[in-house]
Amino acid sequence: MKDVKLRRFHSAAWDEPLIMEMGTKGERGIIPPQAAKEVKEKLGAAMDLLPENMRRQKDIDLPEVSQYHVLQHYLRLSQMTMGMDLGADIGEGTCTMKYSPKMHDQVVNSSKFADLHPMQPEETLQGILEIVYGLEQYLKQISGMTKFTFQPGGGSHATYTNACLMRKYHEARGELGQRDEVITTIFSHPCDGATPATAGFKVITLMPDENGYPDLEALKSIVSERTAGIMFTNPEDTGIFNPKVAEYVKVVHDAGGLCFYDQANANGIMGMARAFDAGFDACHFNLHKTFSSPHGCEGPAAGAYGVREELAKYLPVPTVEFDGTKYYLDYDRPESIGKVRSFFGNLQCVIRAYAWIRSMGAEGIKTAAQISVLNNNYLDKLLLSIHGVSRPYAEGKRRLEQARYSLAKVKEDTGVGTVEIRNRLSDFGVQGYWMSHHPWIVPEPFTPEPCETYSKEDLDYWAAAMAQCVKEAYEDPEFVMNAPHAMGNTKILDDSIVTDPDRWACTYRAYKKKRAKK
Amino acid sequence: MAEKTFVHPYIPNSAPNVKAEMMKAVGIEDLEELYSVIPEHLRFRGKLDLPEPMMAEYELRRHLEEILAKNVICKDYLSFLGGGCWQHYVPAVVDEIVNRAEFVTAYCGGTYADLGKFQARFEFYSMMAEMLDVDAVSEPIYDWGAAAGLSIRMASRLTGKNEVLIPKNISPERLAQIRTLCQPEIMPNSIKITLVNADPKTGGMDMEDLKAKLSDKIAAVYFEVPSYFGTVEKNAATVSELAKSVGAQSVVGVDPISLGVIAPPASYGADIICGDLQSIGMHMLCGGGQSGFIAFRDEPAYLSECPLAIYTIAETAVEGQYAYAEVLPERTSYEARDKAKDWVGTASGLWTIGAAVYMALMGPQGMKEVGETILYNSNYAKQLLGEIHGVKVLFDTTFKEFVVNFDGTGKTVAEINKALENHKIFGGLDLSKDFPWLGNSALYCVTEVHMKKDIDRLASALKEVLK
User: Fold this and answer.
1) What CATH number belongs to B92-358?
2) Which of A170, A204, A210, A202 is nearest to A184 (CA)?
3) Residue B387 pLDDT level (bands cut at 50, 70, 90)
4) Which CATH architecture best describes the domain B78-87+365-465?
5) DSSP A184
6) How many helical (H) and strand (E) elements, i.e. helices and strands, does chain A have?
7) Which of B35, B97, B145 faces A74 most closely, judged by CB atoms?
8) Does domain A106-358 sit in CATH 3.40.640.10?
9) Over the stretch B221-240, which tens digit does the pLDDT of each residue have?
10) Predicted ipTM?
């Protein structure tokens, strides 16, 4: 491995109190607008305008802190947050932590978008509707699908929308009572099982065969007249592309089910392969992953959900249409599943995705995909050269944009597992990695995804930091077990608190009560 | 001549030299080799029909700005639109913090590496708990409708029953979302929705109809304070009591900006509380500022049925130092997949930080004052509008929003709103289609951003329009 000088990093450590512990009685952070004097005189006491039994009796026990100190407090908290802009987030596989251009943020924050009300008359929303319509056209190209909705407020919400659509489709055909099973795979995102279950389906989860692919023979044996559909990813979390995916689709179609392609992360294959061409009926893209909208501490987000022609009539209302002159909203869709989110979803993500695609063009999108896969294959070489790191399944097959590795040997040799290595890794100034969705089929897992944002230097650095963590595990396991050492705080004393109702405290007031009892 | 290479500012390794070096390291001569795992019949060999890229950031910015300039915004016009997305003042410090790159770009990073995010989030739960007067608040979900639907599903699991009562003074959009989550009756985990009449005089719950529809089959009574019509349910405590008397949960939706003046839901018997954070620190963003929350008593039964992540404060080896950890993680879909309590996923996390900063700035006095200003301004508008010939304000005690009936004017709401646009005013939301029993009515929203002169302008424009 290349000789890399690791940073002597230390996070800001402000020892910042909780906001509830700050300030003094009577301090003010801001004065809200007051009603005009004449209005007050005309109406009398404000509280008298409410029913007597519905008036708040006691002031809310909120902190009382001056504006400067509120600002300073949250600035300090932001400094103790690595995020992605500061700490190269190569490790968070399945999340596509790509650079989100600052110019897009500025446009989204501008009054021309921020001060729009979603129920304004259509003719006053022409600009934003043009962008919504435009992005839909681009995603149709990238997926091959016929129509999209941007209403889902996240990736899992898009898979839920799909489950609702499957329900509607079978209901319309009079088969819903019979078709009550949805199939997913264990290496797909957990929401591909959880959301159809929420929508009322029984869920069958396919396990991998010896090569890491979902078992095709097992699929053939479980499809039946009860199959409503399948919901899965490709490549799965392992980064392994399933070359027989069209056969899976055919098996489910032959049984009368629908096929949904979870493309939350499509970063490695956009422009290279399309959901439609593999026979899928529906797919979704996370605009906050593949299409550059920032992740924002887990949202606001958008799951762009697209379907084939035959399913378009079931999409949530309203859809955005164009009559050649003006854009308009179509609520008159009697077969629609209805609403999954209020208004139109998170259009700030739509603007950013639109802008990103316009900055890329067809060639740029292909380049982003290719470089993300090149980056992953380059990192793969480096990681597999670290003693104790392995990459189970599909030996000799290239991974696409991400890969799942195992630190099982390190754990076996040293007692240090993936949780501790993750905690230690951040000490080198990079964001902690994503381990794996549950269950951990791959033992002691970690799943990096070095998307096109990252330079060769970033990748060399990340691998060197990993190598250092593993080296330390062998040389001084205790040190790694007690990580982190360069963060704003130190290791949690007792993890069992999370299952103990007498000690967990989800709010400060609960904390005070429970500590007082102790 | 070398092959034309796309070197993009967002893609460092698209630069030819470094790309060549990396390709050599992975043992390929053509990037195509990386895709050898995808069989030819699945490859897309066409060219995506996308516009040519705008390579210069300036060019793209101009393009975006020119499109967005076609919008008319609620600063160009005077707006009285509400109905779930509201115009409130967002303090500058809130914008400063929610636009910090660290918060904007953080995701599911470690609780140590992203310590500040977790502390800010814990402060949000804590301040929200004070507003609502409960001890447990969950991570956010997409919006109020999603929070209401998931709260009702929680109540159904808690009680083992599957019927919910909802009064007809609810937003049609929110009800549609709840219907989606409660799903068709044919599904095994469906929840039957029965609508309770709204009292035509007060706009609140029709108590007789509620009593008639309550039974031991009911899992929850869901109602809102304020309701979609802005009415403040004076029978809230009785509704909760009645719900409990048949073993049902009282599930209450609230608009948090009302809580400085309106009683906290726990005080009138709410078991599960939900609502939307947009009013406390988020811009309207054409509906992109929504963020649903769910809160409840700190009892294992409630925490165990909540689908959303919940975090606890914890201690470290260093005296006085805090850390954060997820409570009962095995119940969420990240761990339990299809056996989970519904699902959890990326939703609206950044807005909890916006709400935290908002509540910290406002403090007890600010929350009370903003509530009072909204009461004053909206009641002033009610008086003024009610004085216009043919115009009638329908319900008495309201907060922020109120229903205005135009039956006596001989004009439809659509006609009136169209005419108001000529005065650069967005009139209230047209209710006539969704609530035919309210006649020709509109929902007006007046907040702390509306100054007296704005309300006066609305009244005189309406007079002009209705001449």
Assistant:
1) 3.40.640.10
2) A204
3) very high
4) Alpha-Beta Complex (3.90)
5) E
6) 15, 11
7) B97
8) yes
9) 999 999 999 999 999 999 99
10) 0.98
